[in-house]
Amino acid sequence: xxxxxxxxxxxxxxYQLNYHKNPEIYQRLQDVQxxxxxxxxxxxxxxxxxxxxxxMAEYFLNRLYGGPDFDALAQQIARxxxxxxxxxxxxxxxxxxxxxxxxxxxxxAVQLDEQVAIQLLADYHxxxxxxxxxxxxxYLKLEQMQGRLKQLDLLDQLGKSLDxxxxxxxxxxxxxxxxxxxxxxxxxxxxxxxxxxxxxxxxLKSAEKFVKDFTAVERQIIEKVHTGDLQPF
Length: 233
What we know:
Number of domains: 1
Structural class: mainly alpha
Largest sheet: none
Order of helices and strands: HHHHHHHHHHHHH
Number of strands: 0
Oligomer: single chain
Low-confidence stretches: none
Helix content: over 70%
Number of helices: 13
């Protein structure tokens, strides 16, 4: 069985999301993602501003939490799976596993945020600016606690994988050798998605520690939301 087969299932899930066919949901989803990113930037301002953390913080906000290029990335992944046997000869196994984990996280983030967007459309005017209180009440109504905790668990696993598999000089050298083929066959968006992960990790002593520090704070926020704290953010 192809190591890339799991990507087919992930893409099926992604293309079943409602926003692809509903402009109103799409617009509200963008509002939710913008609010999420702004909230995380404020919450983790001190940590994200540390020199060694800047690139990883940008990777989190722009890649793993619903980046603007994800539709283009999904299209390239769909093409890649058609040439799985050739691709697996070029891309190191550990890079495939870690890249797949990153894609899975990005899709889960969009899935959860779309649920929020749909609920907001049901409860408020579609152009009403989002507030912390609107988001707090919507999170409570949707009971997303388990989904959000799963998201953080997967993020912790990704942090471990980055340290364990992606710091290898051999893996990175092999990955860099794929750049020419990626450009030639128009897989540049997917290559950049993984390349950004490599570059973001490079200044860090430990990607796992950065991730764990981030998820510890995020778990506290989830706990506050679901225990009735009126100012959880």
